[in-house]
Write a structure and sequence with these properties.
Order of helices and strands: EHEEHHEHEEEEEEEEH
Number of helices: 5
Largest sheet: 7 strands, mixed
Strand order of the largest sheet: 2-1-3-4-12-11-10
Low-confidence stretches: none
Radius of gyration: 15 Å
Mean pLDDT: 96
Structural class: alpha/beta
Bound molecules: glutamine
Strand content: 25-35%
Shape: globular
Helix content: 10-25%
Number of strands: 12
């Protein structure tokens, strides 16, 4: 199995390390042709306005949207989640806009720029050490979206079919269970290649 990690800006190197620990081959995706060889893609954390603009500049926005709509599994973390969202509170910045959620950027307040918390994630069986860095949260979901985790009364992880998103940075811990969960989503999609 080969998984792509969008490598335009942000925390893509740490995702590569985790996926390789899980025994997966990783392709850094910077150009449309890099998408041809992967069965799933991770959109990392970073700066969502920058990644969104670069996705357009590098000709990736249209092809990525097409592939995800055709069933390719995608996992967006932090800025990656923002880029997947249909609605971003109070901004019209570029995005893929394919997940039926409304997100709010930098939503946990300026005083707490970053923090770590044990978040209960029932699909994983118990808690996960979640690192939040100027993190967004999900304000609203459509009925076709499942909530996978909440923290402090806010939705911080969700899934809509082949689309997985979380507000925190699972690549910054030694706990690989969320990446394993994403790998199992790719294995489920046998018809896609
Ligand atoms: N605050 C960033 C943004 O809005 C996201 C932060 C992150 O990815 N760690 O793009």
């Amino acid at each position: 199995m080969k998984i792509g990690v969008l490598a335009l800006q942000g925390a893509f190197l740490d995702h590569k390390k985790v996926l390789e620990r899980c025994g997966v081959e990783v392709v850094h995706v910077r150009l449309p042709e890099h998408l041809e060889e992967v069965q799933g893609i991770i959109i990392p954390g970073g700066e969502s306005t920058t990644i969104g603009k670069l996705m357009i500049d590098f000709g990736l926005k249209g092809i990525l949207t097409e592939k995800i709509e055709a069933g390719m599994p995608v996992f967006g973390t932090c800025a990656g989640m923002i880029l997947l969202a249909k609605n971003i509170y109070e901004t019209d910045q570029p995005r893929l806009g394919i997940m039926d959620i409304t997100v709010k950027r930098n939503a946990f307040g300026r005083q707490v720029d970053s923090f770590e918390a044990m978040v209960n994630i029932p699909v994983l069986g118990n808690v996960f050490p979640a690192v939040f860095i100027r993190a967004p949260y999900i304000m609203e979901i459509e009925p076709n979206v499942s909530i996978l985790a909440e923290f402090d009364g806010k939705i911080v992880m969700a899934r809509q079919g082949n689309i997985l998103a979380c507000a925190f940075h699972p690549e910054l811990t030694n706990d690989d269970r969320i990446h394993q969960y994403f790998i199992s989503m790719i294995k489920e999609v046998r018809s896609y290649s």
